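Lab notebook, bench 4. The sequencing result for the construct came back, and we need a structural model before the next group meeting so we can plan mutations. Quick request posted to the team channel:

Model the 3D structure of this chain.
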Amino acid sequence: RWEEIDTFTVVMGKLADCNLYSVDVDNQLAARKATQYLIDIGHTQIACIANAHASFSSAHDRVLGYKEALIASGLSPNDELIQYADFDPQSGFTCMKTLLASGKKFTAVFVASDNVAMGVKSALREAGLRIPDDISIMGFDDIPWARYSDPPLTTIRLPAQKLASEACLLLLDLMKGVEPEERNLILDTELVVRKSCLELH
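Done. Here's the predicted structure in C-alpha cell form:
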C-alpha cells in the first residue's frame, strides 16, 4: 500500500488514488491524438488493441482517448473492435487474430504499444494482408525498432529519457528536503508519421 511507504518515492506512471510524486504523459490525450490522425487521413473503421488489461491505468486511458476521438468525429465506438493485449508481441498476435476471426470490418488499428504492434504485424502478414495497403497500423511509444520496421511504424513518441531524468530530479529534490513545484508532472508526447498508415482520401 502506497500510504505505508516511508521512504522517498517517485512513480513513473500513475497509480489510482495515489498521492506520491509522479512523472507521466497524458495517455488519454496521446491516444486521442493517434486516433484523430487516422480519422484525418480518411479512416472511419478503426480497431484498437490496448497495451495491457483494462485494469492498468495506461490501458484504460488509451482506450478512453481512442473512444473520445471517434465520438468527437461523429463515429460510434464498437467494443467488438477493442482488444486488450498483455504488453508483449505474442499478445498482439493473438489479439489481431481474434479481430480478424470476428469478421468485423476495419481499415486501421490503433495499437497502444509498439511492442504489441510487432505481433499485430505478424498476424496481419500471416493472414496475407499488407501494411498499410490493406490495414494501417498506428503505434504508441516509439521504441527503437519502430523506425526500422517494415514498413516504418507511425506512432506516438514518449519522451522516455525525459521521463526518467525528471523522475530522478524529483527524487533528488525530495532527498534534499526541497518541495518540488509539481506533485504530478505531465510531459508532452509527439505524433511521428512514418509509412504504416495509408491515406484514404
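The first strand starts at residue 10 and ends at 12.
Will bring this to the meeting.
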